[in-house]
Amino acid sequence: EITERDWSSDVCSSDLPEPGIAVVTLNRPKSRNALSLGMMAALQVAFEMLGDDPEIAAIILAANGPAFSAGHDLKEMTAHRADADKGRAFFSETMDRCAGLMQTIIKCPKPVVAAVEATATAAGCQLVASCDLAVAADTAKFCTPGVNIGLFCSTPMVALSRNVPRKRAMEMLLLGELISAEEAAQYGLVNKAVAKDSVMEEALTYGRRIVAKSPATVAIGKEAFYNQIEQPLGEAYDYAVGVMVKNMLYRDAEEGIGAFLDKRKPEWKGY
């Protein structure tokens, strides 16, 4: 069971730099922010807490140290090969926890912006791909290198293949080679590549723009985006029609449309 106690500063910390914006920081620099069970538990709690916090409108995911995240903690996983089942139960728990975390980010009603100042590999790359938006340092690199060590990046593949074109995804998965931040932006893995000292400011700029929007509208829109993206065209339109009608009945839609027609700034009221 994941509890608030799992969210400790040695694996994950949170800061509120500006009203409405929370920054969650991976903080295992000596382990290149590897996604140990403890780290993933901390992130799970962080996203659940912030997702439920009415004072938070946007979340930025950052990292301390020489890597954004090197992916799964291979030392932790290797140690469990000595278990009676050769690690099967631990490996299953690790992959299940990781899959759950990535889906929590997607399901979080608050947009999540990755601020990637250093290299993200394997499940670390998966973490970036799972965020709604991403800003990367022009010196950062990305890869899914599992194929190089006999372990295909099958779970990172899920997030990767939903963010970049198929041929590009297969190139990254089959070759396991580093790509530049510029290439990552061209592929659609990140939104933009900027100078390293500008990454956080660019991420905060996204956050500020989101804070200015109706939280209720952003939440229903994010949920609808991920729901419809997996549906056939006709079903997606049927679903989206229902979402539009539901959204149209929100007080914020009434206020926003009225403000637009009256040429004034809207005052968001909620659902």
Write up what this structure looks like.
Mean pLDDT is 94; it is low at 1-6. The radius of gyration is 19 Å and the shape is globular. It is of the alpha/beta class and 271 residues long. The longest helix is centred in the middle third of the chain and has 20 residues, at 88-107. The protein has helices at residues 37-52, 74-79, 88-107, 123-130, 154-161, 166-175, 181-187, 199-211, 215-228, 233-248, 251-262, and strands at residues 12-18, 21-26, 58-63, 67-69, 112-116, 119-121, 133-137, 141-143, 179-180, 192-194. The strands form two sheets. It has a six-stranded mixed β-sheet, with helices on both faces. A four-stranded mixed β-sheet has the order 4-6-8-9.
Largest sheet: number of strands, sense, barrel closure: 6 strands, mixed
User: Termini, distance in Å?
Assistant: 32 Å
Number of helices: 11
Rg (CA only): 19 Å
